[in-house]
Structure formats: structure tokens, C-alpha cells
Here is the input.
Amino acid sequence: MENTCPVCGELKARDHASVLKRCGACGLYFRTERVFISPVYAPGLEDGIYGSAKKELFAEALNSMESMLNGKGRLLDIGCAGGEFLKAAAGRGWRAEGVELDTALAVKALARGFEVHTRPVEEAGLAGGAYDAVTVFEVFSQMEKPAAAAAELLRLLVPGGVIHIREFNAAFHLPLYRLEKAGLFRPLGISPSIIHNLNFRARTLRFMLEKAGFGDIRVRNSPPTAGDPYRTGGALGGFLTGALKVLYYWLAQALWFITLGRVFAGSTLIVTAGKRPSDGHSS
Ligand SMILES: [Zn+2]
Here is the structure.
């Protein structure tokens, strides 16, 4: 069981480093012993992580979905935290609700006036064909059953509905993790790599969405969050860390361009996809 890939169900996973296994079929790197850490950050960091650092990313997500849908509608945010994105969406005229498993965060979103479901989405029993858009910001990496969740999200969408995903890119974080373990960043006091239970790369996300039945799957490097909300930059400080992140984003974009769209090196990825209009009777 622990060798089974949670995205594609393959049994071919190979040992890799000490804590991670790599799926030979879809490219997922996953922890064999899952860790479930509820997102509790040091006092004062939460606003940066959920709010100000993501303001532009939230606006970009809403712009993108509004242009894909040619309008607004009903939206479900998976892992809605305290309702920060729901608030941004509602402010632009979306009918927004969320899924949040962390009780303290769910209560916060509820207090902001949003409907919040507290079961994993694949177990929540929500009505099929009811949502115009689904957003999943850095949540697939934490999920117990990502493939089941992806299939359920397709079912929840109206025909022609869209999904917008932001996810950490393992093609960036795993090499960094190895350098970090080797002690390269120790003199600077920084810890830039992020390793989750599930570590996706572009082709893994594409594979998972195709398998779930999504169409029109598009992957792009995500612009970074503003500044250093997670305080991983140590002695570099917020401004320099923020500047380095922007510089790196443009290097990743340059690499994407010169490889004709084949290589995604960005630290995070954005994936958009749609529910085909002909899938309308499946829910
Ligand atoms: Zn796999």
C-alpha cells in the first residue's frame, strides 16, 4: 500500500533519497510516511501568507477564470483557509464558498459569512454540476486522495466550468532540497525548498487531470508571492528574497520560452482546465 502512487495507482514507485519515493509512471514524488501538519504559522505571518502576499495572485486567478467563463458565477475554493480568496472573489461578484478541513480556519471563513464544508471534497457529498469554477491553491500536495478529489471536482463543475490550480513545482523544490540537505544554504540561514507529502511536477498535474477527464489543460509558471511571507529567506530579508523570487521567475520564463514550452522550472505552477460541454450528462 505505501508503495502505491496516490495519483495514478501504479505500484512501480522507486526508493528515492530516504523519505521520498518516485512514481515511474506519473513522476510524482511522495512521502512514504505522510505528515499532517495543520498550517499554523508564527504570529504575524498568517496575514502575509494568506492575504497581502497573494493579492495579485488572487486577482490573476479571478481574471483568468472570468475570461475563460466569459463572466462570473458560483465558485468553490478547496482549502479556503480563513476565507481570504473567497473574500476577494465575492468582492468581484462571485458567489463563493469553500472547503476547509482545519477547524480553526474554517471558523474564521464562516465568521466572514461564507459557507464552508469541512469534509475532504471527495467525501463532502456536494451537488454535481453546481459550480462554474473550482480553485485549488497549494492543496493537492496535502491531499490524502488527490486522484479521487480531481474526479470529484470534475463532477461538481457545470459543463464548460473551469478549474484553476496553483501548486508547488517539484522540478524546482526537489533539487533545491538536495542542495539544502547538503548544507549549501546554511551560511545564509535560508531554507528555500518545500517538501510535502505529495510533490507534483507539470506532467504529474497534467496526467492527473487527464485521468480525471478534464479537457483543455494548460500549464504555466506561476509568478511568485510578493516578498517573503513564509520567512524562508533568513538573513536575506524580505525585500531581497522577494527580488530574487521575481528574478528567478523571469529566468524560468526564459527557459520555458527557449525550450518551446517544454520545461517548467518555476517554483510554483498554475494549471487551468475545463469540463467539456459534452460531459454534461455525467453528473
Ligand atoms: Zn504515479
The chain has one domain: 14-37+45-275. The first helix runs from residue 45 to 51. The chain has a mean pLDDT of 85. The CA atoms of residues 1 and 95 lie 40 Å apart.
